[in-house]
Amino acid sequence: MNNSQNPQLHKHSVSCCRSFQIGQTVYHRNVYEHKEPLKIVGILEDKLLLEGDFSGGTHNVFQRDWLPIKGTSRIYNHAFKLKARKDAIAIETLAIPCAGSQDNTFKCMMEMVHAVMVLTNDVSLNPECE
User: Fold this and answer.
1) Phi, psi of 5, deg, nearest 5
2) Torsion of CA 53, 65, 32, 118, to 10 degrees
């Protein structure tokens, strides 16, 4: 199977912060901490013209604004997912001395750490633009 036939490769491919396209949906740190979908309608060297509901959802009014590329992410709720991933890595590191434990609490904790790592894999592969 070549790369174009492998759907998993496209699902988890690393993105480049400079490879934006008109019509693409992104999220920005300055607009509700990456929680509002915004459509790219213009691109400059260091800014994106984004269209979306900047009203907080109360007015459902779509507006446009130029925002810096820095702080842009392709991932919904990026900052929260990144923090969860960093916390999971810290827990896993702290648990190394207990690695041989057969305790059910330890096993459950490590299963939850693994689940967080899987669920936040997209954050690792698609960093927020700096």
Assistant:
1) -95, -5
2) 100
Tell the burial category of 7 from Cβ atoms under 10 Å away from its Cβ (0-12, 13-18, 19+): exposed
The residue to which tokens 């990026």 are assigned? 78
Position 13, amino acid: S
- pLDDT digits 0-9 by tens, 27-53: 999 888 888 899 999 999 889 999 998
CB within 8 Å of 91: residues ≥ 6 apart:
109, 113
Contact yes or no for 92/106 (Cβ under 8 A): no
Instruction: Please answer whether residues 72 and 129 qualify as being in contact, where contact means their C-beta atoms are separated by less than 8 angstroms.
Output: yes
Q: Which tokens is 40 given? A: 């790219």
pTM, full prediction: 0.70
Question: How far is the C-alpha of 12 from the C-alpha of 38, rounded, in Å?
Answer: 21
- Burial of residue 28 (CB within 10 Å: 0-12, 13-18, 19+) is buried
